[in-house]
Specification:
This protein is mostly beta strands. It has no helices and 11 strands.
Length: about 120
């Protein structure tokens, strides 16, 4: 049984920061990439950032230089540090995990955590 549990969302003012966490429960040995997606109201879910077991990272152009993804293998946790937030970052953020052989971390999903950027 695989489970991803996100935390860290909330309300933040423009220019502020948040750190999201996602804990993986299950057979971590089968997982390569983990990452974050987001879905804003009326929009499709989009990839935000990914990180592989060997710490290779990938970011969406819209978050490069502002967001940082990291991974703690001991705690089976992936983090998303979000800085310089703006209203366009408002969305439900989902943690994803991908099996070896999967191109993207979308084999397993968390329940999502809401991030709202507003003054």
């Amino acid at each position: 049984q695989v489970q991803l549990v996100e935390s860290g969302g909330g309300l933040v003012e423009p220019g502020g920061s948040l750190r999201l966490s996602c804990v993986f429960f299950g057979s971590i040995g089968s997982i390569n990439a983990m990452g974050w997606y987001r879905q804003a109201p009326g929009k499709q879910r989009e990839l935000v950032a990914t990180i592989t077991r060997t710490a290779d990272t990938h970011y969406a152009d819209s978050v490069k230089g502002r967001f940082t993804i990291s991974r703690d293998h001991v705690k089976n946790t992936v983090y998303l540090q979000m800085n310089s937030l703006n209203s366009e970052d408002t969305a439900v953020y989902y943690c994803g995990a991908g099996l070896f052989g999967s191109r993207w971390p979308n084999d397993y999903w968390g329940q999502g955590t809401q991030v709202t950027v507003s003054s």
